[in-house]
Amino acid sequence: HVGTFCRYVISITFPPIAKDYFCCEMKFYQKFFASRYDSFMHSIEEEFYSVREELLADLEGTILDVGSGTGVNFEHFHANARVIAIEPSEYMLEKSLTKLPAKATIETHHLSATDDAMDDIIPDHSLDYVVCTLVLCTIQDQQLALQKFKQWLKPDGKLIVLEHIHAEHNPNRFLQNLINPIWKVVGEGCHLNRDTDKTIKEAGFLPENETYFKRSLRFYQGVFSVEGDKLRE
């Protein structure tokens, strides 16, 4: 591929130039990805509208919206909710600002869940809910993020989840493993082959209710409480 060859030549010949070149190229793609995300997700989000409403509409108190993206959750939050929305993509975050509703209090931050700065804005055991919708697939250190959620949630706080997960059986499971290295690049860090449902439980969260369903991918939604023994450790 000519583009790949050119990037290789630049990287070994002019390292300082290569750094700026790759940074510029990455930002261009991130901006493009953000600009097309809503239209790409339009059909599936129409199906998920009622799911998001079911999971989010009655939540009150202090809520962390993890990976808030282009703000698709914003319209579903209750008027009495105080929402802290975090998003690592500056372009997705910028787009989400146009969706801020008048009814809910939503503050936005250009951060990811595992950034050290998160501890400065969220005290321990201060959150009523942590909301993760189609985001745990992109967080590089999923286990660390889940430990942070436990740290920030109140003892009676809840983790709310809607995620796509690894196919249960072959050939889809095999194909997702095969495609994943390419998909991660195209999908801005999205992993097709994560068993997120199992990882959440292994991190010490107890499902109060959970549902598996399939669209083009296998999906999982659930409401979790923090396991008591794990919280005291």
Can you describe this structure?
By secondary structure, the chain is α/β, with parallel strands linked by helices. Helix content is 44%, strand content 24%. It has eight helices and seven strands, in the order ααββαβαβαβααββα. It has helices at residues 2-13, 15-56, 90-96, 118-121, 142-152, 172-186, 196-202, 228-232; strands at 61-66, 81-86, 105-109, 127-133, 153-165, 205-214, 218-226. It has a seven-stranded mixed sheet. β2 (81-86), α3 (90-96) and β3 (105-109) form a beta-alpha-beta unit. The model is unreliable at 1-19 and 229-233 (pLDDT under 50).
Key attributes of the depicted protein:
alpha/beta; 233 residues; 24% strand; single chain; globular; disordered N terminus; disordered C terminus
| Number of helices, counting only DSSP H or I runs of 4 residues or more | 8
| Fraction of residues in helix | 40-55%
Strand order of the biggest β-sheet: 3-2-1-4-5-7-6
Question: Main beta sheet, described?
Answer: 7 strands, mixed
Structural class of the helix and strand makeup?
alpha/beta
H and E order: HHEEHEHEHEHHEEH
Cα distance spanning the termini:
52 Å
Overall average residue pLDDT: 88
The coarse overall form would be: globular
How many extended strands?
7
CA-atom Rg in angstroms: 19 Å
What's the short version?
The chain is α/β, with parallel strands linked by helices and 233 residues long.
